[in-house]
Amino acid sequence: MPHTPRPSAVLTVNVGRAMPSTHTDCPAGTGIDKRPVDRPVRVAAPGPKGRAGSGLAGDSVCDLRHHGGDDQAVYAYAREDLDVWERELGRELANGAFGENLTTGGIDVNGALIGERWRVGSELLLEVTSPRIPCRTFAGWLGERGWLKRFTQAAVPGAYLRVLEPGEIRSGDAVEIVHRPDHEVTVAFLFRAETTERELLPRVLAAGDALHPEARKAALKYRSAKAI
Questions:
Q1: Average pLDDT over residues 127-153
Q2: What's the average model confidence in pLDDT over 26-45?
Q3: How far separated are the first and last CA of the chain, in Å rounded?
Q4: What does the domain layout of the chain look like in residue ranges?
Q5: Does the pLDDT at position 1 exceed 50?
């Protein structure tokens, strides 16, 4: 029988509370332990990075130096990619295991273009901004030897999104891609440019204003250095 694609949807909405961790120097600990919730969750732009955390009400983001803020308000990871990691690691990975706010189904999250817009449910409008760059807190949470290198080489990082229109969402909400920009810069492309293939950095500028400010800064710095 022909394969029937899974409808694009949020399988679960996941939030976490702050907990102590030896894998971070943040006094507040970490909010990486995200768990699915069975209630509506309000999502809105949280504010500037460094002063604001998650875009999801009731969700903790502790290390505001590196996480949270308007351009990293929501983190999405595909259930399909978690399934691949389950097979490779030989262990169960529940929805939220990677610290994602949205565990999605039927969406090529890493193939999403920077600036791509998702309508989630009837109200929420999100815009893809950047990939997740793995940190030692993530490595400590997973407890897998060589995890940072392994995750980086796989180049399936999941996507950060900003909130363009706030709204309530719940597990099971449909996701509709309502805008795809005309350039080559996918989440996976930007991730490789920021990690293993730095020579790609100048090309990420094609994503324009939707590009995460930190990625734009890195690309401009690289281009300037190469021009000398």
A1: 93
A2: 86
A3: 58
A4: 9-184
A5: no
Q: Are 87 and 154 contacting, i.e. CB atoms less than 8 angstroms apart?
A: no
Burial of 131-153, coded b for 16+ CB within 10 Å and e otherwise, reads: bbbbbebbbbbbeeeebbebbbe
pLDDT exceeds 60 at position 3? no
- How far is CA 85 from its chain centroid? 16
Handedness of CA 214, 215, 219, 220 (dihedral sign): negative
Instruction: Retrieve residue 55's tokens.
Output: 């875009």
Token pair recorded at residue 107: 């969406």
pLDDT of residue 63: 67
Is residue 22's pLDDT more than 90?
A: no
Residues 55/74, Cβ–Cβ less than 8 Å: yes
Structure tokens at 149: 């290198």
Distance, CA of 64 to CA of 93 (rounded, Å): 26
Give the CATH superfamily of 9-184. Answer: PK beta-barrel domain-like (2.40.33.20)
The widest CA-to-CA distance across the chain, in whole angstroms, is 58
pLDDT of residue 137: 86
